[in-house]
Amino acid sequence: MANDHDHPHSQADRADACTPAASARTVSEQLAVVLGSVAPLPPVRVELDAARGLVLAEDVLTVTDTPPFDNSAMDGYAVIRSDLLGASVLNPITLPVVADLAAGTADNPRLVPGQVARIMTGAPIPDGADAIVPIEDTDQGTDLVTIVAAPAVAAHVRRAGEDAHAGDRVLAAGSVLWPARVAAAASAGTSTVLVHPAPRVAVISTGSELVTPGSPTRRGQIPDSNSFLLSAAVADAGGIPVRIGAVPDDENVLRAVLAELAGTVDVIVLSGGVSVGAYDVVKAVLKPLGTVHFGPVKMQPGKPQGFGHWPATDTVPGPLIFALPGNPVSAHVSFEVFVRPALRRLLGHTTLHRRTVTATVADGWNSPPGRAQYMPVIVTYRTDIQRAPADNTRAAGTDASAGSTHAEVRPASRGGSGSHLVAGLAQANGLAHVPEDTTHIRGGDLITVMLTS
User: Fold this and answer.
1) E strand or H helix that includes residue 424
2) CB under 8 A, 24+ apart: contacts of 307-316
3) Torsion angle of the four alpha carbons 436, 438, 439, 442, in this order, in degrees rounded to the nearest 10
4) pLDDT band, residue 131 (cuts 50/70/90)
5) Residue 338 has what pLDDT?
6) pLDDT band at 304 (very low <50, low <70, confident <90, very high)
7) Contact yes or no for 427/415 (Cβ under 8 A)
8) How confident is the model at residue 82 (pLDDT cuts 50, 70, 90)?
9) Pairing relation of β-strands 93-101 and 116-119?
10) Residue 184 gets which letter from DSSP?
11) Which of 100, 166, 323, 426 yields a CA-CA distance of 20 to 30 A from 341?
């Protein structure tokens, strides 16, 4: 059921009010349970083309020296430096060109005094040569070349092993393979890397009221937005989303879908059906298994939560299961607080959580007592300019004005953190974290904000 009620004075709040306080977990306790159940996925070896964004499970060592041979850093001429001592515009020196060396050539003509070779960037430096004269310091001749500048010692020569020697560590285990690091692995001479694979994550929305976006709706029906929200969030976290879409409030149908998915994915994320309603199908299907815990978490929105795993068999490991509330803001907050860190750990990351900033509250709001609140907010940045004194007495070398940048936040929606306010959620680029013991946030207060975009 998609519309789990977890905003103040809702059905879930009234029911949970009857639950002993000790049974409600704090956010930290719930997160500890989640992360304590998660380890990086077993590493696999992949081609470099498939490695971008993944986390290395072992060091990458160079196969050969990098570069593997002395080569030219410029287009120009390979020379014997002693031939050109004293060369200048007023004293040009002309020498015969005995070879033409392009990048990739295997030719290695030995130069003797009085000879040069035309050479392109990256081409191996021929035996006997000890410097490169850039083409700009010549008349660009092909049979004879006139040189008007004396080269420095080893000018424009890239030495073998200058970047790395065979056996050197180029990338450490735990490194994220961003494009430059993929290039470094390729330069080291490796075509495959051992990485933690991206988890496959099935995303299911539950609720007989849900229809595919764009389809006609009758009274009581709404478009399924959660499966698109959560699939996009999975991809943003580095996982591979498997969007199943909406499943009706039918225990047999949901049970069959979950059983079929169990052997094909690493994680299943469900939204809806986790509260105390008459048609809370997720809870009805999963709770009897004994492997998924349902219970309130001291947070708003996102109070009803379920977490565990599908029962494992001899042939099928049990994928992790996250059962999230069905309201879009609740699903979004729950994903950011619990699911995303778990996916990051499965991927092998050591940095699991979003970046945070301390921001100044522009417009205040209220927070429910005894629950950590995650308020969708709009974060903006302001630079305060401090002008230099009129008498120009600032220290020498400093700018005429200087400033500091401050983050400011205001709720993304006039409705605050109500779990159904998806339009406001679209404007938010952060979640302001209000501690359990704070009930009033006033303009000018400082608050911690998780940056979500």
Assistant:
1) helix 422-425
2) 307/30, 307/33, 307/34, 307/37, 307/338, 309/37, 310/258, 310/262, 310/268, 315/263, 316/262, 316/263
3) -140
4) very high
5) 98
6) very high
7) no
8) very high
9) parallel
10) H
11) 426
Q: Are 191 and 256 in contact (CB under 8 A)?
A: no
Residue 81, token pair as written in the block? 């430096």
Q: How far apart are CA 354 and CA 352, in angstroms?
A: 7
Q: Residue 46 — φ and ψ, nearest 5°?
A: -130, 160
Q: pLDDT at position 15, please?
A: 37
Token pair, residue 371, equals 């629950």
**Residue 259 DSSP SS3:** helix
* CA 344 to each of CA 148, 164, 453: distance values in angstroms, whole numbers, following the listed order: 59, 31, 16
Residue type at position 285? V
Q: Is 289 exposed, middle or buried (0-12, 13-18, 19+ CB in 10 A)?
A: middle
First to last CA, the chain: 29
Report the candidate in 312, 322, 236, 309 with the shortest Cα–Cα distance to residue 272: 322
Per-residue pLDDT at 6: 43
| 3-state secondary structure (DSSP) of residue 331 | helix
Q: pTM of the full predicted structure?
A: 0.80
Name the burial class of residue 313, with classes exposed (0-12), middle (13-18) and buried (19+) by CB atoms within 10 angstroms of its CB: exposed
Please tell me what DSSP assigns to residue 103. T
Residues 6+ away with beta carbon under 8 Å from 374: 299, 300, 301, 302, 333, 336, 337, 417, 431, 432, 433, 434, 450
